[in-house]
Design a protein that fits this description.
A hairpin with a 2-residue loop joins strand 1 and strand 2. The protein is mainly α and about 600 residues long.
C-alpha cells in the first residue's frame, strides 16, 4: 500500500540533500519545454517598453504572417496576398542597424551591441534579422520566393521534430534517473546526466518515447482515453531510466500493468500539490522554481519506488526485467570492494606515498605548480597525482555515496584512460613554462594576424612589439597555470578565475600602454557589449575563460609532454635565445613601438569624449 505521507517526507529529505542538482534538473526540463515551462516567465518579465514592442510585433504580423509565425516557432502559417519577404524583412534589417547604434553607460561599464561577434549574434535574434539572412540565402539558391518559404517551413518543422524526439523527450528519462538516484544516494555525479550516452541507449530510448507519443496521440482522439492513458503510461520514463534496453511494447505494457489499480492513488497524490501550485502562482513562480518543482518530482520518484516494489511482490508479468536494484538500495560493501578493488589499491598506494617535495620546493609546487626541473622524483610524484585524480572520480562510488556504475546491469562503454598523458594537476618546470609563454605569444599573434587579415584584407603585425609574439597571450597562459593552480580541481571555478585574472591582466596592460605612450591605444573595445573603458569586454573575457580552461586541462599537459622529450640542456639554450631576442625587442619597442594601420589607428579622441 502506498504511504503518501512517508513518500512526501522522503521526497523532502531528497530535495534537502541534493537541492542545487534537483533545482537545476527541473530548470533544464523547463527550458526544454518538457514541463514547468510557465516558471520561465520570471526570467523574461517585460517592462512597458517591451510590452509595446511585443504589441508592435503582433501588429506587424498582420502583414507579415509568414515571418512572424516562423520567428514565433508556430507551424500554422497563413499567407496573404501581400509582399511578405521584401519590405518587411528589410524592416528587420533596419531594426538591426538601429539597435547597433544604441549605447548605455553604467559607471565605467558600457552596455552596447555595436561591435563584436557576440553583438552580431545577439542582434540577429533580438531583431529577427537571422530570418532575413536565412531566407535571402535560400532564395538566392532556389530563385523563388514561395519555394524559399516552403523550404524554411519544412526545415523548421524537421528540426523541431528532431529536437523533440531526440533531446526533449529523452531528457524526461534523464530527469527520472537523476531523481531516482537522489532518492537512494547521498551524491548525484554529473555523469548521471549522461547515463544513456555512456550505455549507448540514447537512440533506443528516443525510439521508445516516439512510439509512446504515437499511442498517446491515438488515444487522445477518444473522449477520455487520452487522460486515462497519460496515467497508464506514467511509468515509461522511469522504466527507461532503469532498463533502457526494453522494447517499446515491453516498456509500455509494463507501465500499464504497474499502474493498474494505482491511477487513483497517483491522481490523489497530484491533488495534494494544488496548494503549492497556488503559492507558486502568488510568488510569480519563484517558489515553484526553487522548491515546489523539485519537491514534486522527488515525490513522483517515491511513488514509482512504491508501485515498483508492490509490482515485484505481486509478480506481474515481465516485472523481473526491472533488474537495476542498485537504484533503490545500496550495494553490499563486499560487492563494492570487489568491483572497485583497483581503486582501493590506489588509495592504499597514495596514502603510503612519502616521496614528495619538501621545503621551498614543496611551497612552489603546491601553491604555484612550479618545479626547477624534471627528475625521477617528478615522474614519481606525477604518477601519484594521476592516482589521486582517478580516486576522486570513483571515491563516492567506493564509499557507497553514489550509484556504482561498475555494477550496473547495462555497463557503460569502456573509455580510454588518458589520465596518464593529460593529467592536469601536474607541476611544470621553469623551462617548460618559458617555452609555453612563447608558444602562447606566437599563437595569440597568429590568431590576431589572421583575424585582422580577414577583417581588412591586409597583413598586419599586431601588437606593440615587432616580433611575431603578443606577450599578453603568453602572460595569460602562464599566469593561469601558476596563479590559479589551486582552482584546477573544479573546471567551473577555473573558468571564472581565468576570466577575472585575464581581465585584470588585459585591463592594466592596456592602461599601462596608454599611460606610457601618450594615450595611444593598441586595442579598443568601445561599442562591445559590457566593456570597461574600451580596455576589456565580456566577449573577450569569455574567450579567455574558455581558452584558459582548454589550456589548463588539455593544451598545457599535451605541450608539456612534448617539451619533456627535449633534452634539458637543449631546452635551456632555446629558452635563453628566445628570452634574449624578446628582451631586445621590448627595449627597442619602448622607444620605437609598432604602430600603423590595423594596429593603433583608433579614434582616441572619440573614446575620451565618450568616457
Amino acid at each position: 500500500m502506498f504511504d503518501r505521507k512517508q513518500a512526501k517526507l522522503n521526497a523532502k529529505q531528497s530535495v534537502k540533500r541534493h537541492y542545487l542538482v534537483l533545482v537545476f534538473t527541473c530548470l533544464m526540463a523547463a527550458f526544454l519545454g518538457i514541463k514547468y515551462s510557465g516558471v520561465l516567465a520570471i526570467l523574461s518579465a517585460e517592462d512597458d517598453d517591451a510590452d509595446l514592442a511585443a504589441a508592435d510585433q503582433a501588429a506587424a504580423a498582420e502583414s507579415t504572417n509568414i515571418l512572424y509565425e516562423f520567428v514565433s516557432g508556430n507551424i500554422g502559417i497563413k499567407i496573404d496576398g501581400k509582399s511578405i519577404l521584401t519590405e518587411d524583412l528589410d524592416k528587420a534589417q533596419e531594426k538591426f542597424e538601429e539597435n547597433k547604434s544604441k549605447s548605455y553607460k553604467l559607471g565605467p561599464v558600457e552596455v552596447s551591441l555595436a561591435a563584436g561577434e557576440f553583438a552580431k549574434f545577439a542582434n540577429m535574434f533580438v531583431t529577427g534579422s537571422y530570418v532575413t539572412t536565412i531566407y535571402k540565402g535560400i532564395n538566392n539558391i532556389v530563385g523563388s520566393d514561395k519555394a524559399a518559404i516552403i523550404i524554411m517551413i519544412a526545415v523548421s518543422l524537421l528540426l523541431r521534430l528532431l529536437m523533440t524526439a531526440f533531446i526533449v523527450n529523452v531528457f524526461s528519462v534523464i530527469l527520472s534517473r537523476v531523481f531516482l538516484e537522489a532518492s537512494t544516494y547521498g551524491k548525484v555525479p554529473v555523469r548521471s546526466f549522461f547515463v544513456l550516452l555512456r550505455s549507448k541507449k540514447w537512440l533506443h530510448s528516443a525510439f521508445v518515447l516516439i512510439v509512446e507519443s504515437f499511442y498517446k496521440a491515438l488515444w487522445g482522439l477518444t473522449v477520455i482515453g487520452g487522460l486515462i492513458k497519460s496515467y497508464s503510461y506514467h511509468c515509461v520514463p522511469y522504466i527507461l531510466a532503469e532498463c533502457p534496453d526494453l522494447s517499446p511494447n515491453e516498456t509500455i505494457t509494463l507501465s500499464r500493468k504497474m499502474m493498474y489499480g494505482h491511477k487513483w492513488e497517483l491522481f490523489k497524490l497530484q491533488l495534494t500539490f494544488i496548494g503549492w501550485e497556488i503559492v507558486g502562482a502568488m510568488t510569480a513562480g519563484i517558489v515553484s522554481v526553487f522548491y515546489v518543482n523539485p519537491y514534486y518530482e522527488a515525490t513522483m520518484a517515491e511513488f514509482y519506488r512504491s508501485i515498483r516494489a508492490q509490482s515485484k511482490a505481486a509478480g506481474i508479468p515481465n516485472i523481473d526485467k526491472l533488474c537495476d536494484e542498485l537504484l533503490f538500495e545500496k550495494a553490499p560493501a563486499s560487492e563494492l570492494e570487489a568491483a572497485y578493488s583497483d581503486i582501493e589499491q590506489l588509495i592504499a598506494e597514495t596514502e603510503s606515498f612519502s616521496d614528495g617535495y619538501t621545503g621551498a620546493r614543496a611551497f612552489f609546487a603546491n601553491v604555484f605548480g612550479i618545479v626547477p626541473a624534471y627528475s625521477e622524483r617528478t615522474e614519481a610524484i606525477d604518477r601519484n597525482e594521476v592516482k589521486k585524480i582517478k580516486i576522486s572520480q570513483y571515491r563516492d562510488e567506493v564509499e557507497g555515496e553514489a550509484y556504482p556504475a561498475r555494477l550496473a546491469p547495462i555497463p557503460a562503454s569502456p573509455r580510454r584512460d588518458r589520465l596518464g598523458t593529460v593529467f592536469y594537476t601536474r607541476c611544470y618546470s621553469v623551462t617548460s613554462l618559458i617555452l609555453m609563454f612563447f608558444i602562447g605569444c606566437f599563437i595569440g599573434w597568429l590568431w590576431e594576424f589572421i583575424y585582422k587579415f580577414i577583417e581588412i584584407g591586409e597583413f598586419v603585425n599586431r601588437g606593440v612589439l615587432h616580433g611575431p609574439w603578443l606577450p599578453i597571450y603568453g602572460t595569460g597562459a602562464v599566469m593561469i597555470l601558476i596563479v590559479l593552480k589551486k582552482f584546477r580541481k573544479s573546471a567551473v571555478a577555473e573558468f571564472f578565475a581565468a576570466v577575472v585574472l585575464c581581465g585584470f591582466v588585459e585591463y592594466f596592460t592596456a592602461y599601462f600602454l596608454e599611460l606610457t605612450h601618450d594615450g595611444q591605444k593598441w586595442w579598443d573595445y568601445s561599442g562591445y557589449f559590457l566593456n570597461i573603458h574600451g580596455r576589456v569586454c565580456a566577449e573577450g573575457l569569455m574567450v579567455f575563460g574558455i581558452g584558459g580552461v582548454a589550456f589548463v586541462y588539455f593544451g598545457a599537459p599535451m605541450l608539456d609532454n612534448l617539451i619533456r622529450r627535449i633534452k634539458t640542456k637543449t631546452a635551456a639554450v632555446i629558452c635563453a635565445v628566445l628570452v634574449t631576442v624578446f628582451v631586445a625587442d621590448g627595449i627597442y619597442s619602448l622607444f620605437y613601438p609598432n604602430q600603423g594601420k590595423g594596429i593603433t589607428d583608433y579614434d582616441t579622441a572619440v573614446t575620451e569624449t565618450k568616457e
